[in-house]
Task: structure prediction
Amino acid sequence: MVNQVTGRWKVKEPRLQELAERAKELLKATKSSLSWAPREENKDADALSNEALDGPAKPAQSALTGKGADDTAAFPAERLERVTGSIYIAHGSEDYAVDLLHKACTCPSFQHRKRCKHLEAAERLA
Result:
């Protein structure tokens, strides 16, 4: 976000555009500045920003059950709409396409982690 707020990069994510503008206003009003740090040097902040965008990460899987310790973050199957045999639309605050054949989803969580609650819900239905 630092590069977006400082104007070096464009803010492409619609959910973040308003926040970036507000951050710019606050920086100007408080005569503050930002400096970028590589992810490797700032893993805690990176994890917090991912959680803010995607929700909390799933707990580690249990070696015995293969399931996460907390399944409350599971995506409800009734919010999945089957479009074709292997394509679903996950309806929520944002809609995402889920492709079972290629094991992919268009949500930010999948883009970052290559797994997400939408894909897991569709796999449970299949």
Q: What stands out?
A: The chain is about 40% helix and 10% strand.
